[in-house]
Amino acid sequence: MYKVFVDGWQGTTGLRIAERLAEREDIEPVILEDAARKDIFRRLEAMKSSDITVLCLPDDAAREIASLAPDKARIIDASTAHRTSPGWVYGMPELGLDLREKIALAKRVANPGCHASGVTAIIYPLIKSGVLTPEALVSATSITGYSGGGKKMIAEYEEKNYMYPRPYSPGQNHKHLAEITYVTGLKNAPVFVPVVAPFYSGMMVTVPLHISELNGIDSPERLNELYSDFYVGGVIRSGEIYENGFASAGMLSGRDDMIISVNGNGERLTVTAVFDNLGKGASGACLQNMNIMLGINERTGLNI
User: Fold this and answer.
1) What is the set of domains in the chain, with CATH numbers?
2) Residue 115 near residue 122, CB atoms below 8 Å
3) Catalytic residue among 114, 214, 285, 292
4) Quick check: is 286 catalytic?
5) Which of the residue ranges 1-10, 110-119, 258-267 would you say has the lowest mean pLDDT?
6) CA–CA separation, 90 vs 112, rounded Å?
């Protein structure tokens, strides 16, 4: 039986992780009662007594507790705080570079952001294989369910009953951009359009591409082969997402996997990642990393 301490379980991601851990027979969740959840000494004691600690905290709070944590503590940070920090392993094992092995041995793992997971899953194999150069100028649109905004946004959407998608962060300063460029190796951040839509969970990230700008790619089929060859193992796979000409951002809602789909013609392509912002974009990715760190089959407890 492994002990896993969830620090900050009251938030959307933390609560979902705690609920999912409670369903596991091989995990004993360590959850502090309300009176102790802000007591730094109680939190550090819980961290010391646990096999894994999951931080589901605001960025500053995650930095504070991580700086005080004992060296031997094994931590997964679900916040933005450490995704580009030296000494932290990026928790997306499908990216290769021996990442799965690094995660297995790591003391500090940074869980990827939801938008960043989709953009990175699309862009990283292209740069890694030389299809795109690091200097390439790309753009991405990411549609997410409103649960990605946490309890405040969930309450707002359920109270106001918004009917239409709502783009945000028009100043091109979204907090996931630093993570995307850091992990993919892009020299220039993508032109990024995040959109909150009036559904609870689900995510669709789309990157448009001109074939003339891709090295060694002459058709959608060839690019699809590249993704099929790259994503072997893990919970990312290539596949078709369109049915009768339409695709749904909620296609994998409630699941922990991701589908990469290539569509287009001999001139222009779209590459789309479909997944759940609360699954592979949050709690599912965290559980996958936790499993790897504990030496458990990484799909254990995942909905795939």
Assistant:
1) 2-112+281-294 (3.40.50.720), 114-279 (3.30.360.10)
2) no
3) 114
4) no
5) 1-10
6) 7
